[in-house]
């Protein structure tokens, strides 16, 4: 075995990666998770009571989930077993459970750390339930995805979910200072470049240390890099964004709410974040159309026109020119007057339609193409609105047993201010005709 490592250039004295050398040796050295490991943190309280149940660690990469699990095992005198859902099958799980039972028979408990636990299918997740319930293992699962969507309800009911936070710039700075102490030399970056490296890390401690290693490898004696040179050397780390998972939904939510909140600057930022992460521009075009009808509606009828035109322009121009048309739509929607009047009216009408069953329209608004239908009263008493003063008859068009309903209540904003005036005028005419 030693020959194998030597042939690969991995002799015993070979330098380990910086992130591995700086792996915390105790929980107090973990940065950026004070809400879990501080004096009143959730994990700190568990350790004080010596009562450690099964846990799910939810958070982005590089925030310390694996390290914390290993240190928890040490502090609670549990045997540490680590597996990855990506590389582990049912047969492997059975072996792990058998080893845990054997250890338990001699008084040794097992903390089973399962990385990427959301990768197990539902049936595989159910396989953990018996060994969790009988105490064979204390399960600590790690996931970057929302447990509510990716994990079985039965599994979640038996575990406590703890959220690991993205490392902020202060936490990343602490890691860089430790790296400099470990290396015995400062990072060869000026102030601006150091700030850029902090942003490039994107809240991932492991990535920050890897970037620092890249910088030290590239620097000549006495050389100090500025921000532009730093980007040339390390390139830019891909954003943490998976178009099919949680990051996707978080960012589209941020974009939608920024548009709804009439903040064009924030809306453009989230729009560009999604484009930068590789999002399909046509997906964004479709969502902008949705925003136009849900959050603006008739307060500005041109919003839907603009959103559709932006989609058409993108389809004609393609990338990258077409993105500008979408950006224009983002700004237009964010700065348009807002109304959910049609949206709420639609939802109210849907509820009413479901609750009231298959009621027939009033006979006076039904066509009567046959004598039989005329004899049954179809079309009797119908008033042709164009023949009425103001082209408004004031008839009731709802089913007779329902009576007149009110769904649409336009606000005093944008074009709906004018619509409201029309509705109020028609209500006035309707009341006058009812009293005649």
**Amount of helix:** 40-55%
The CATH superfamily of the domain at 33-163 is known as: P-loop containing nucleotide triphosphate hydrolases
Beta-strand content estimate:
5-15%
Number of DSSP helical runs: 22
The first-to-last residue Cα distance is 103 Å
Number of strands: 5
Morphology? elongated
Major sheet: 5 strands, parallel
**N to C succession of SSEs:** HHHHEHEHEHHEHHEHHHHHHHHHHHH
Summarize this structure as a short list of keywords or feature phrases.
Rossmann fold; disordered N terminus; mainly alpha; Zinc Finger, Delta Prime, domain 3; 5 strands; post-AAA+ oligomerization domain-like; elongated; five-stranded parallel sheet
Can you describe this structure?
By secondary structure, the chain is mostly helical. Helix 12 packs across helix 14, helix 17 packs antiparallel against helix 18 (302-317) and helix 17 (281-296) runs parallel beside helix 19. A five-stranded parallel β-sheet has the order 2-3-4-1-5, sandwiched between helices. Helix content is 53%, strand content 6%. It is built from 22 helices and five strands.
